[in-house]
Design a protein that fits this description.
This protein has 5 helices and no strands. The protein has 138 residues and is mainly α.
Length: 138
């Protein structure tokens, strides 16, 4: 196996990094949608839509609408850009495939190293050494 076969290509390494960053952005969006700030915003929005928003909550709803709306839209855009039209499931499958390839290459490199190490030890055996000759039946 050549050195180029035992390493990830720059494209594969970049794809792994890109996929991981995309999933990180997705997770950031999901975390934000579970935050107290976002949940309060959704609660106030639902109250406003139902016509049950109290007068004293209008200022909070307005402020949250601005801050939460901007952050949510930015995160959605980041995720959309990062996914490049792929679903989260497709991205996770692609990442798993690339990580499996990386693991396979790593194991291959370890195997090659062990073979080279064993070969070197065998090559260094002194054929004129009596102990070696008796051990190897010469």
């Amino acid at each position: 196996m050549s050195d180029s076969d035992s390493q990830l290509s720059p494209e594969q390494a970049a794809a792994i990094e890109y996929s991981q960053k995309s999933l990180d952005r997705w997770n950031e969006l999901e975390d934000f949608t579970r935050s107290e700030e976002f949940l309060r915003f959704m609660d106030l929005t639902n109250q406003a839509q139902e016509g049950t928003l109290r007068q004293e909550d209008y200022a909070e709803a307005s402020a949250l609408s601005q801050s939460v709306g901007e952050r949510y839209n930015r995160l959605r855009k980041d995720v959309s850009d990062a996914l490049g039209g792929k679903s989260r499931e497709e991205l996770e499958a692609e990442l798993k495939e690339l990580e499996a390839k990386q693991k396979e290459l790593w194991e291959s490199m370890q195997s090659d190293f062990e073979e080279e190490t064993n070969t070197c030890l065998i090559c260094e055996v002194d054929e004129n050494d009596e102990a070696t000759q008796s051990e190897y039946g010469k």
